[in-house]
Design brief:
This protein is mainly alpha-helical. The protein is 37% helix and 0% strand. The radius of gyration is 14 Å and the shape is globular. The relative contact order is 0.11.
Length: 59
């Protein structure tokens, strides 16, 4: 096993029109970060969509 340093998570929250969406999109393409997909919220009847999204490495 690798000895990986695990940093504490951080969350981005913001009210409407505060710029949190663009910050989310910028951070989502960073290779060393992960994110919570909103696809499951939008399409709860299609959990396969979220899995396919992760396999394709899409933000």
């Amino acid at each position: 096993m690798h000895n990986l340093a695990i940093e504490p998570p951080f969350f981005i929250v913001g009210s409407g029109r505060s710029g949190s969406s663009i910050l989310y999109q910028l951070l989502a393409v960073h290779p060393q970060l992960c994110w919570v997909s909103r696809l499951t919220d939008r399409f709860p009847w299609a959990p396969w969509l979220s899995r396919a999204h992760r396999l394709l490495d899409l933000p």
